[in-house]
Amino acid sequence: DTAVSQTPKYLVTQMGNDKSIKCEQNLGHDTMYWYKQDSKKFLKIMFSYNNKELIINETVPNRFSPKSPDKAHLNLHINSLELGDSAVYFCASSQDAGGPQETQYFGPGTRLLVL
Amino acid sequence: AQSVTQLDSQVPVFEEAPVELRCNYSSSVSVYLFWYVQYPNQGLQLLLKYLSGSTLVKGINGFEAEFNKSQTSFHLRKPSVHISDTAEYFCAVNKAAGNKLTFGGGTRVLVKP
After folding, report:
1. How far is CA A86 from CA A38, A71, B16, in A?
2. Which residue in A5, A39, A43, A54 has the most chain B C-beta atoms within 10 A of its own C-beta, making it the best mutation to test that interface?
3. Closest CB from B42, B88, B95 relative to A100
4. Residue B92: closest CA among B70, B110, B107
5. From the list A42, A100, A106, which residue is nearest B43 (CB)?
6. What is the pLDDT of residues A36-81, one digit of tens each?
């Protein structure tokens, strides 16, 4: 059983399009995250939610909008896609309030390519 | 602000040889330290973490890491690697009162037969 799942696994789209990436965790965790991994493998947090409430909102263009319909889901919607948005996007979750000592569990990633 | 430096971007190593991956961090406050591994085309998974107590931390798959506060380092070691250890390894830090995990740039380990 997959603990943290993401769909789609691959996403190829044109500049200017709007797309969404879905994430679900079946671990019963309270906190979920979105990370962006660039072509040099550098991994940076974008957002985190705890029980559907936004906790972390890094310096991310407002074209990116996370949505958490319930604590098991955290989706990422991207408007007006740009070439620089091409990256691997990882969803993750942790058990409690996103405390600094918690282990984060990562999904398999969504590889986004903007043409 | 905290930061993490992984000094080696790539480490080629022969099967059954030892490997050490270096990680240094910068923070003005107490931190928690983590090593995650990313196998090809997969998400990250935790190898080990240091929260407090003994500075030598043992993790999964035979890996261990040593926290050195004076050197601000958290180097990862394995005495004998397998082909299956070929992966990208990430060191990460979180402030003891923080909520944001900061990752290093990663070290790619390529195990050769």
Report:
1. 8, 27, 37
2. A43
3. B95
4. B107
5. A106
6. 999 888 899 999 998 888 888 887 899 999 999 998 999 999 999 9
